[in-house]
Design brief:
With about 200 residues, this protein is an all-alpha fold. Helix content is about 50%, strand content about 0%.
Length: about 200
């Protein structure tokens, strides 16, 4: 095993690698390859990189050489065989537009989106059905918060009446009237001296 890697990493490439490593959306394989390139740029020898990465010297040299020759695109994963993702970029954009639009504005008979409603709406408009649970994952990836709406009646209350009620309650608390014990004692059928049976 050679002690050093022949491929040179420039200061500009090192800055580019460090910028890429700050991204949160990197897949683990690409992050590992970029870490190898960064290690070379920092002057680590091949044996040390092989030890911490768990890869062969040939693999480390290959990824460093690819990055040095072609940049970040060279360390990205190659397209994989199989079905293309159902939630492609167009679907994600449609999802974002739907979430940011009030359902009544789209002619829908409800006021709040749920993941099941979003799934049904996008299946109807985009022709792609994605399960509500996976839709919540997509929303989280796009920094949307999912949760239960809090329904209140605050918008139906008259502020002047609410203030008057609060003032009346405050005045009643000031008067006191003996507190909870006086209220209990004033109840009909209550024996305050506790020397007579209370009729049922």
């Amino acid at each position: 095993m050679k002690g050093t890697i022949a491929q040179e990493i420039t200061a500009e490439q090192r800055t580019e690698v460090e910028t890429l490593l700050r991204r949160r959306d990197l897949c683990p394989r690409v992050r590992e390859r970029l870490e190898m390139v960064k290690a070379v740029a920092l002057g680590q020898d091949l044996a040390a990189i092989v030890a911490w990465s768990g890869r062969t010297a040939r693999t480390v040299e290959r990824w460093v050489r690819c990055y040095g020759e072609s940049g970040p695109a060279a360390v990205a994963d190659a397209p994989r065989a199989g079905r293309p993702p159902r939630a492609d970029q167009a679907y994600r954009q449609a999802l974002e537009r739907a979430v940011e639009t009030a359902p009544p504005a789209l002619g829908l008979p409800f006021d709040v989106w749920t993941s099941a409603r979003l799934s049904a709406y996008l299946a109807q408009t985009r022709g792609v059905r994605i399960a509500p649970g996976w839709l919540r994952v997509l929303l989280a990836q796009q920094d949307f918060a999912c949760g239960r709406p809090k329904h209140t009646l605050g918008h139906l209350q008259d502020p002047a009446e609410v203030a008057a009620c609060q003032a009346a309650l405050a005045a009643a608390e000031k008067k006191g009237g003996g507190g909870a014990r006086a209220l209990r004692d004033a109840l009909p059928g209550r024996d305050t001296r506790r020397d007579q049976p209370v009729p049922l």
